[in-house]
Amino acid sequence: MLRIVLVRHGSVPGIEPERFRGGSTFQLTERGIEEARRTARRIAQHWRPAMVYTSPRQRCIDTGRFIAERCAVPTRVLDDLFDLDYGEWTDRTHEEIRAAQPVQYRLWKTQPHLMRFPGGISLQDVAMRVADALRYVVATHPDDTIVMVGHDSGNRSLLLHLMGLPLSAYWRLQQSPCNISEITIGDDGATLIRMNETAHLEAGDAPLE
Predict the structure, then answer these.
(1) pLDDT by residue (tens digit) across 81-132?
(2) Cα separation of 119 and 164, whole Å?
């Protein structure tokens, strides 16, 4: 049986107040580094992964490095752990877009599966990429535990795919920075064990603020 520990990268600039980040290059903030350390500690205590796969974005690579070092396992970039490309909306705040393009912004918030970002891509594009990443992991690690470090949109799309839910349910899921979700895949299909777990970010040391 394959066990996937799915992690979102740690905090970066542009989460609060929220901007459309996508393909932007961001480094982890100090908070994000501490989140990654605590996530690495939690994973090392609870699982024995054979490999850590990350998105090619630096924020995911850095988060994955903390996990891989703590668990003493290799890390590898998996290009198909993809994030949304918001095109012309990239680096702009939600307030800016809501004011400038209210119809398209409302479409994104109410029917995300119908949205293609101006100059960017759609959720369907992301879903196809992360499904390819999943197929690779299933074929390569049928009996292993592995960690996948990705992005908010990519992780949501992957979870929806595994649960057999449509992309229209995108906003029903939450993916907080450095959260942990766990999925098993075996002869009986996929089972969601946990989703968006963040208790480890307040465990042991003082809670993050």
Answers:
(1) 988 999 999 989 999 999 999 999 999 999 999 999 999 999 999 999 999 9
(2) 29
Burial of 63 per CB tally in 10 Å (0-12, 13-18, 19+) = buried
Radius of gyration of the chain (CA): 17
Per-residue pLDDT tens digits for 145-195: 999 999 999 999 999 999 999 999 999 999 999 999 999 999 999 999 999
Do the bridges between strand 180-186 and strand 145-150 make them parallel or antiparallel, or are there none, so unpaired?
A: unpaired
Burial of residue 124, with CB atoms counted within 10 A of its CB: 0-12 exposed, 13-18 middle, 19 or more buried: middle
Q: Please report whether residue 209 resides in a domain.
A: no
Asked if the peptide bond before residue 102 counts as cis, ω within 30 degrees of 0, the response is no
Q: Which two tokens stand for residue 99?
A: 């004011």
* Tally of domains in the chain: 1
CATH number at residue 198: 3.40.50.1240
Residue 58: which residues within 8 A CB-CB, separation 6 or more?
A: 25, 26, 27
- Show the domain range for 116: 2-202
pTM of the model: 0.93
130 φ/ψ angles, rounded to the nearest 5 degrees: -70, -30
